[in-house]
Amino acid sequence: MRILFVAAEAAPIAKVGGMGDVVGALPKVLKAMGHDVRVFMPYYGFLPDKIRIPKDSIWQGSAMFQDFEVYETKLPNSDVPLYLFGHPSFSPRRIYYGEDEDWRFTLFANGAVEFCWNYWKPEVVHCHDWHTGMIPVWLYEDPDIRTVFTIHNLAYQGPWRWRLEQITWCPWYMQGHNTMAAAVQFADLVTTVSPTYAEQIRTPAYGEQLEGLLSFIAGKTVGILNGIDRDSYNPATDRYIPQNFTAETIDDRKQNKIALQEELGLEVNSGAFLLGMVSRLVEQKGLDLVLQILDRFIAYSDAQFVVLGTGDRYYETQMWHLASRYPGRVSAYILHNDTLARRIYAGCDAFLMPSRFEPCGISQMMAMRYGCVPIVRRTGGLVDTVTHHDPANETGTGYCFDRYEPLDLYTCLVRAWEGYHFKEPWRKLQQRGMAQNFGWDKSAVEYVKAYRRIWGLPEEEPAEEKAAVVATPDDAKVESPEDKRPELVK
Ligand SMILES: Nc1ncnc2c1ncn2[C@@H]1O[C@H](COP(=O)(O)OP(=O)(O)O[C@H]2O[C@H](CO)[C@@H](O)[C@H](O)[C@H]2O)[C@@H](O)[C@H]1O
To answer: Per the record, what are the reactions this protein catalyses (predicted)?
Structure first.
């Protein structure tokens, strides 16, 4: 199948959070399965520092009375074509924020549609979050292209109807409440990034005021669990951590802990319980709970705490204050740094993720991959990926609590801290986490089934079709018997 991913982020070159991880990894897996997958993303001002981009554009287009150019390169470490939407509004060295954010991402979405109509026509456009929300609206009437819209985070819904009307001139009935609402109404299929979150968004507690609409479209909504890039995030080969290790050589992991303590200016003590957090510092991530109890937990125990993240100024400042109150015990790094994130996963004993809501969560899976035990609130994808540790039966992969209450988090932390002192059960707990298969293989198959479903094709690819897709060269693929639809436009 011909599939175009359209998104604001793609790891490792443009990533703020988990959506970037998904867009950086899933296309590669689909490509390996034999599909013609390509990615469309803005040409941010910082990209030339990260990848080689040819000077000449491959196509010029125009949308919303603006001219733009599209450049072609490859998604790093793959042969997935990456198209970069070049317009001066994306030149600043940032991904989000700025007063023109609504406008420039709506332009980007419009540009993506022009690209599909005039340069490369996919069968499925897979859109991610509100930045691409107008694509399903514009493509709704197109008989040759179907749209899938993935909700990574319902908390960000894009410009509201009146603003959209100013930007796009699209009539009100094509817009719903805001961009996110428009997208879920008009997309052929809506996906969320975990089965539990797909259920939760139909309730007032998690629906972010769209629960009515999301209940209404429940029939075309499906929850498909995210995976992680297991090649890139592999403790056995990761070149950004001081000491590689596997589940069998997990005792070597201690060297990462000591190196991390040295690097962060924490007291070097391999016996102390080292707790880590790598996160966007926003309300979603349960930081108000953390700030309410961490002081006490640090005072009660010998624990150390490191946080790496950026986000709301309030939480950034509070984390700084915490670090200044406990020199040698607490360390706060208010920046975005992928390599430090890896060293935290590889060196900490436990990983804290007490989210208020969590569509899926990638960090807890990465933590488990690196033998770092997750401490999570049971919500959204955290329910689907972490199970509570039961030392008697030797089951479970982390520590969980249910209610969004400071006392519950505190109790959970104390239990984890106590559990840490029982070396053998703890080691087994780490190994069980490392043995989890959070690869993309299973989920990629689910996505392919979904793509086929919206085209009215049987979910399972017939064996001969599968073989044909894998065997045919790129150009021939569009001619395959499955493709009776109109020719590519070029
Ligand atoms: N300061 C920093 N430095 C380096 N790396 C940092 C960092 N801050 C965060 N990261 C990285 O960003 C990613 C965070 O991903 P998550 O899925 O946990 O959360 P996020 O809320 O961003 O994603 C949203 O989209 C994803 C993808 O669908 C959903 O899983 C999730 O629930 C939803 O909220 C991880 O790879 C983490 O290591």
So the answer is: [(1->4)-alpha-D-glucosyl](n) + ADP-alpha-D-glucose = [(1->4)-alpha-D-glucosyl](n+1) + ADP + H(+)
* Banded model confidence at residue 473, pLDDT cuts 50, 70, 90: very low
Asked if residues 401 and 378 have their Cβ atoms less than 8 Å apart, the reply is yes
φ, ψ dihedrals at 146, nearest 5° = -110, 155
Of the candidates 384, 389, 414, 392, which has an alpha carbon nearest to the alpha carbon of residue 400? 389
C-alpha neighbours within 13 Å on the C-beta side of residue 365: 25
Q: Residue 333 CA: which ligand 1 atom is closest?
A: 1
Please give all residues whose beta carbon lies within 6 A of any atom in ligand 1, as ranges: 17-19, 21-22, 152-153, 193, 226, 278-280, 308-310, 336-338, 341, 358-363, 366, 381
Radius of gyration of the chain (CA): 23
> Which pLDDT tens digit goes with each residue over 271-315?
999 999 999 999 999 999 999 999 999 999 999 999 999 999 999
Residue 146 CA, ligand 1 centroid: distance in Å = 28
The continuous run of DSSP H or E covering 37 comes out as strand 36-42
Judge whether residue 173 has pLDDT over 90.
no
- β-strand 81-86 against 36-42: which pairing, if any? parallel
How much is the pTM? 0.92
* Distance (Å, whole) CA 313 – CA 318: 9
Ligand 1 atom closest to 363 (CA): 18
Query: Element (H or E) spanning 411, and its range?
Result: helix 406-420
pLDDT tens column, 374-391: 999 999 999 999 999 999
Q: Tell me, what DSSP letter sits at residue 96?
A: S
